[in-house]
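User: Please predict the structure of the protein below. I'd like the answer in structure-token form so I can feed it into my own downstream comparison script.

Assistant: Understood. Taking the following sequence of 171 residues as input:
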Amino acid sequence: MATSDSLHEDALLRRLSGELARLSSWDDVAGYVIGAAVQLLGGNTGSLCLLTADDRELEIVAEHGYSLEVSAVWTKFRVDAPLPASEAVRTGKAVFITSPEDRDERYPVCQGQPVVEDQAYAVEPLIAGGRILGALVLGFEEPREFSADEQALLAAAAGRCAEALDKRRRR
């Protein structure tokens, strides 16, 4: 028997899939992913980081809730950089950061740089057709642990977003 949480998650993923399917252009999908999808998933801020043509850098192609200072500094960064989105792309695995202290300990390069002031982060690789396209970064207002169910939901949502982006990019 399905739990109330799993029914809610299924409904959320159906809604996300339905909205993504009705969008016709890559720009519309990117805008939806970084706006409405971030809010649907409970995020405060977010960014869509895609690999450049040479696969050496990630470029933030859409963001939600970032200050001008943050947006000016973090437009492009190397895949081999010691950063959460870079790690997600290099490994193909999600990165979960539970607090600013966790972020600064794991990614010291963030100290002294303008960063999004959220308290926790989920960074999901965007994988479509076995190929990594980039990463979806979600920021959350409060420090938190991410349960296995939340991790699975975020991974499923990122997968649907990646498929939609990949499909529109091929047109």
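That's the full token string. The CA atoms of residues 26 and 168 lie 5 Å apart.
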